[in-house]
Amino acid sequence: MFNCNDEREMVDITIEAQKIISCIYRMRERFGIGMVAEVLKGSRKAKILELRFDELSTHGIMHEVPLQEIKDLINFLVAEDYLELSNGEYPVVKLLPNAVLVIKGEAKVTQKVSQQPSRELVVEVNLFDRLRALRRKIALRENLPPYMIFADSTLREMAQVFPADHMAMIRISGVGERKLEKYGEEFLEEIRSFIEENGVVKSLVNRPMPSDSSTRPQSVRNPTQNQANKIPSHHQTYLLYQEGYAIEDIAHVRNVTVLTVQDHIVRCSLDGQAVRWDDFIPIGQEALILQAVNQVGREKLRPIKELLSDEVEWFTIRAVLEKHREIAEKE
């Protein structure tokens, strides 16, 4: 039935649709929604680099759009018969005839969107802004860059969950025991004040996140926690790594080279910090590197590199060596 009270407005999303369709075409219609969205976002995950999707003209073409929003747009195009999903356990995104008309500029794509954000979203955004302001104040007081207090992703989760006590706060990704002890009460007080001032309903307070909290990074063990402004440089890098930043992003934020960040991660591993080495090892390269190590030993990197193709990066070799050093030490 036609809804005459529908207050949503029609928005032209043709440009976004063309980017998505173009990316699917360049990926030869062989991958699912998640992989397409990651390429459009500009992810540099191992699988994307291995398939050389970072060389596509559409890689990162929607870097300013949240990943979930890209996925939602792809699903919208499926629902509107511009795309289709194949059958099977791992559905692949395919182009339909309507998509060809869009990419040629012969058809427009429109979508209805709400004119006004929900009160819940407005509350979340307002609290996020207040938490960022508090972080800025603490950063000035501590003479630290803001990201060393909490990352934006951590503040955003606080604004979604409304933690009201320490138990709820420690479950927030990126908090950890050290930061909870040092900054937790100030942020909790700001959240409590916001709740009282804005009449936030109790159902929103301490609400669970949809993601699995068991995957939350552990707190960083830092020997200089009472002198935060004297944290060793490689530990500062590790803090960002623990909060989910990619190596390239850490280099940009800290104004250092990618090589420096890689060195810092190795140093932290030698210090006993946990590093997920598989994140840095493309599928299929580990076995090749181990074969080379068996031939020339692990004392020097260059002899290993000379036995491998140019696609194998220096840091991948270091990652494999560190991974198996840790395995050997546990045995």
From TrEMBL:
Residues 205-229 are annotated as: Disordered. The keyword Nucleotide-binding applies. Keywords: ATP-binding, DNA damage, DNA repair, DNA-binding, Helicase, Hydrolase, Isomerase, Nucleotide-binding. GO terms for molecular function: 3'-5' DNA helicase activity; ATP binding; DNA binding; hydrolase activity. Residues 121-201 form the HRDC domain. Its cofactor is Mg(2+). It is an enzyme of class 5 (isomerase). GO terms for biological process: DNA repair; DNA replication. SMART domains: HRDC (SM00341), RQC (SM00956). It catalyses: Couples ATP hydrolysis with the unwinding of duplex DNA by translocating in the 3'-5' direction. InterPro entries: Helicase_HTH, HRDC-like_sf, HRDC_dom, HRDC_dom_sf, RQC_domain, WH-like_DNA-bd_sf, WH_DNA-bd_sf. It comes from the Bacteria. Residues 211-229 have a biased composition (Polar residues). PROSITE patterns: HRDC. Its EC number is 5.6.2.4. This is DNA 3'-5' helicase. It comes from Candidatus Desulfosporosinus infrequens.
